[in-house]
Amino acid sequence: MSGPVPAYTLTRKRMKNLRMVISPGTGEVRVSAPMRTPQREIDAWVRSKSAWIAAKQVEAAAQPAALAPGPEADALRRELRPLLAALIDEWVPRMGVPHPTWRMRVMRTRWGSCNKVKRSLTFNVELARKDIHLVEYVVVHELAHLIEPNHGPGFYAVMDRHLPGWREHRAELNGRAID
Ligand SMILES: [Zn+2]
């Protein structure tokens, strides 16, 4: 293949496969690569995805980079609160986890987070704009951290047991992490 390599930022991680994320708003291309993958191999992989990157960057530019506090955020909060409450009430007994405290926040880079010690979950207000199955995925993901704090094999086993389709949901939510 020829043609220029799209600009990207690279992070090396202990991982098996190359991974790419396009940032909402800025359209920045962020690539994670295994420690030992040669640079030319990464360049070739990124170049092979040029068309996909260009399409995603158009989408990213149309997305607001960050939600400002104000009436819009308040409206999303009002919409999301009862949905989260219902999903948590449903999944806590199903997963056998202790009932957590939880809150909603405007978060720029994440969909949710969990503090296992404090037993407290935080959800991104902008989940209100997502389909319910994706909100459910984030809820189950954060509740699973009350069992397994890290993204290790034990965590994935919990996810596979309770929500077998979670990998597809994660792919749909790409652009922001789920801690
Ligand atoms: Zn997580």
UniProtKB/TrEMBL annotation:
The lineage of its organism: Bacteria, Bacillati, Actinomycetota, Actinomycetes, Micrococcales. Residues 19-63, 74-174 form the YgjP-like metallopeptidase domain. This is YgjP-like metallopeptidase domain-containing protein. Pfam families: YgjP-like.
